[in-house]
Amino acid sequence: MTTQLPPEFADWLRLREPADAAARATDLVDAVRRRLTGDRPLVVHDLGTGTGSMGRWLAPLLPGPQHWILYDRDAGLLDRAAADLVHAAADGSPVTVATRCADITRLAAADLAGAGLVTASALLDMLTAEEVERVVAACAGHPTLFMLTVVGRVEFTPADPLDGEFAAAFNAHQRRTVDDRALLGPDAVEATRAAFARRGVEVLVRPSPWRLGPEQAALTGEWLTGWLDAAVEQRPELAGPAGAYRRRRLAEAAQGRLRVLLHHADLLADG
User: Which residues contact 187 (CB under 8 A, 6 or more apart)?
Assistant: First the structure.
């Protein structure tokens, strides 16, 4: 089934791309690089591609010819991602691309046949436990790199007495049920690790926090607005305090005084 996401979603993905790139755990890429044989082109299946930030970041870090297969339910995002993918690997080898408009939660092992690597970014926390089981079942047998999954922890400097209450409400929103789908939210990393472990697959987990400071004030403002909106949607009684809190925090960001450490985790399953 094809879906069309609002244009502002693509704008959000572009805004967060530098923070994503700075946060990702590069030692897991080193581990991927050591697994590459170099005797044939690397076929990478990128799940939930969005605007293609994973390919733009990872392809130039890996040597040898690569063929990226991009998956998303939004055909417009896929077209944009394919057009913007880099054309050269770390050693100058060619990088080619194909797209598949598909629901990644319905993939089977046969869809990923021949994959040398499966990747995804900022995806797992939006899935249910059942969907993670299906994705892991499809990926098992291939090295799999899932990056930037939220883990439910955020640290502000300076601190505010309301930080914890809004964080708890946001985490509850991440775990909400949507159209009979109970989202994993901050529980996604452990659910994914356990799903691979049940199949005898070793998993490495590394921290990959966003570190937002004065240079990322625009991103901080957009993220904070969305974070508070989700918290208030989950707990409408927080709407009053959220207004004053938002004004304080946005003023601090504009003045270059606000720093945010937003925790994520990266995961590498060793096939």
Answer: 175
The answer to whether the bond into 158 is cis (omega within 30° of 0) is: yes
pLDDT tens digits, 15-57: 999 999 999 999 999 999 998 876 789 999 999 999 999 999 9
- Residues 132-157 have pLDDT tens digits of 999 999 999 999 999 999 999 999 99
SS3 of 65-93: the string is CEEEEEEECCHHHHHHHHHHCCCECCCCC
Across 107-126, b (16+ Cβ under 10 Å) vs e yields: beeeebeebbbbbbbbbbbb
The pTM of the full predicted model, rounded to 2 decimals, is 0.94
Name the nearest CA neighbour of 2 among 82, 80, 73, 78. 73
Cis peptide before 214 (omega within 30 of 0): no
With a CB cutoff of 8 Å and minimum separation 6, the contacts of 88 are 60, 94, 95
- Residues 259 and 214: their CA atoms lie apart, in Å, by 7
Q: Which pair of tokens denotes residue 255?
A: 């003045």
Query: Where is 269: in which H helix or E strand?
Result: strand 259-270
Q: How far is CA 201 from CA 135, 193, 248, 270, in A?
A: 14, 9, 46, 6
Q: What is the mean pLDDT of the chain?
A: 95
- 138 by Cβ neighbours in 10 Å (0-12 / 13-18 / 19+) ranks as buried
Token pair 């974070």 is found at 227
Of the two residues 244 and 5, the one the predictor is more confident about is 244
pLDDT digits (tens, 9 = 90+) for 63-72: 999 999 999 9
What is the dihedral angle through the alpha carbons of 16, 18, 21, 23, rounded to the nearest 10 degrees? -70
SS3 13: helix
